Each structure stands twice: as C-alpha cells, then as structure tokens.
Amino acid sequence: MNVAVIGAGAMGSLFGALLAEAGNSVCLIDIWAEHVRAINAAGLAIEREGVSRTVPLRATADPGGVGTVDLAIIFVKATHTAAAAETARSLIGEAGLVLTLQNGLGNADTIAEVVAERRVLAGTTAHGATLLGPGRIRHAGEGSTVMGAWSRQPEGSGDARRVAEVFARAGFETVLTEDVRQALWGKLLINVGINAITAVTGIRNGQILDLPATAELSRAAVAEAVAVARARGVTVREDAAEHVLTVAAVTAANRSSMGQDVDNRRLTEIDAINGAVVREARRVGLEAPVNQTLAALVETLQAHYR
User: Which of 147, 178, 209 corresponds to the end of one domain?
Assistant: First the structure.
C-alpha cells in the first residue's frame, strides 16, 4: 500500500516506520526540515528498551512531490487538522482514504468537511513514542490500535477492514469497531485524566498515583467527561476513572504527549481534550468545572512560554 503520514512527530514517525518495515511504500511529511533531512540521510532511528534499530524511510516537507497515495494518515496536533486535511485531499486521488489516529474530539469531523465522509477512517492507539531529536524516536510502549469507518454507510466497513489488515501485517494489534465514536471517547477519558495534570505539574504518568489528592483530581476530571459522554448517548465503561489510573500505572515512566509539548514549548491539544469536554458539557446542559480549570491552567501556561 502507498502511504503518506502527515505529521512526522514521534507517533507519525513510529507508524510510518513500522508500515515501511512491513513492505509498504511510505513517505513522511513534516515541516521540521532538520528531521526530514536526518531521515533522508540516515533513516529513522528507533530506540526500544535500550536497543536501537534504523529504518530507511523517505521524508519530505513538500507534499506536492509525494504523488497519489492509497492512504493518508494524519498525526498532526489537533490545531493543524484542517490544514492536514487539505494536504490529504491533494494526495488521495479518486479512491484513497484518510485515517486519523489523533488525540481528542473533533478531528474526524474536521477532516470530513474537506474529504468525503465515506473516505474517512478514525481510530485510537495505545502505542507510545517520544521524539528524541532529528531522525530519532523512542518507542515507549505498545497496545491495541482501534479503527473504524467514520461514515455509518456499509461500504466504510470494507475500507476499514482493508486498512486494518495492512496494519496487522505491520505488527500492530489492530481491532476493528463498528462504533469508532465510542472508541474515541474511551481514549479521550484517558487523556482527560492524565494529560493536563502531567503537563501543568511536570510529573510523569505514574506520579499521578503518588498523592491521593492528585489521583482524586484525575478521577474528578474523568467523572465529568463520563457524565457528558452518557448525556450524548455514548456508552463508556463503568470503571472509567479507575481504568485511567490503571493506565497511568502501566505507563508510569512515560511523559504524556501534552507534557512533552509543554516541555518543548509547543502548543498543546488542550482544546481538543479537556476543552472539548467543557464544550460538549455546555451543549447538553452540564457543567465541567474541573476540566474547565485544567484547560485554563494549560492555556495560561502555553500562553506564557518563554
């Protein structure tokens, strides 16, 4: 399969590399010129549990030279989704597909405003990665990747199955779902309970469990999001808050993606995560004061980067 990965940060680079190792033709697209040059010159170095390997990859900052692809995977931050959707539309020709594995709510809807909804796939992944420098990432952890068609039309299931098979051959534990919106809310709950807290405090995921007050803050943020999801008619697990704390324990050594953004003075995805909970709460007549406070704190922090 010919694949373009739009957004070659840690996760985009990881997925592009594993798909390339499985024999797919992959091109990474990113605006970070130094990263692009490093990958083209020496491949992508992937560190995993102290062992490093290098994967030959093609990378570019110019989507115009990529050609037509079967699949465009969007891995940019939520603030850049609209622009990435335009890039994807220029690459997929008459029959290609677009897959978003981004964090937060609203990305698939934004893409579907640019690309026909029937050609949009969405999903979540439990893989973790950290960008170490130009041409270098750390594969921090793995888990299942869930995907499904954004359109509710029957033909979407066939497209999702075809892409899922490609991912499975690349070594991804891939799960197809008929209700990808439920999967997105499930991932959102994890991000709601971990990301903003770690971003503001500078701690790693597992340190949320160090103090009862921090764990309770996570539970409160997740409880608000659960109430909003149920008001929207979305089914979420009964033990959502405790599940988030379990995820924090399993990924104890990881710094969340939002934490990494703050560390590197980048704009975060707070608006698509805790901010999205606040917006969705208002639409269904609920309040989400914990998520509103967490969102305000992260927004304040990023507005005053030195």
Answer: 178
Q: Please tell me what DSSP assigns to residue 173.
A: -
Q: Which domain holds residue 234?
A: 181-303
Reading phi first (left if > 0) and then psi (alpha if -120 to 50, else beta), residue 93 is in left
**Overall number of domains in the chain:** 2
Residues paired with 130 in a beta bridge? 138
Say yes or no to pLDDT of 141 above 70. Answer: yes
Judged against a pLDDT cut of 90, whether residue 219 lies above it is answered with: yes
pTM: 0.90
Q: Which of 145, 178, 211 is the last residue of a domain?
A: 178
Upper half-sphere CA count for residue 169 (Cβ side, 13 Å): 13
Distance CA 127, CA 44 (A): 17
Does the active-site annotation cover 77? Answer: no
Distance of CA 280 to the CA centre of its chain: 20
Calpha distance 218→228 (Å, rounded): 16
Q: Which two tokens stand for residue 20?
A: 């390339």
The token pair that represents 147 in the structure block: 């995907």
Widest distance between CA atoms in the chain: 54
CATH value at residue 275: 1.10.1040.10
Q: Could you tell me which residues come within 8 angstroms of residue 46 by beta carbon, excluding any fewer than 6 positions away?
A: 14, 17, 52, 53, 54, 55, 137, 138, 139
Catalytic residue among 138, 181, 187, 204: 187
Do residues 68 and 112 both lie within one domain?
yes
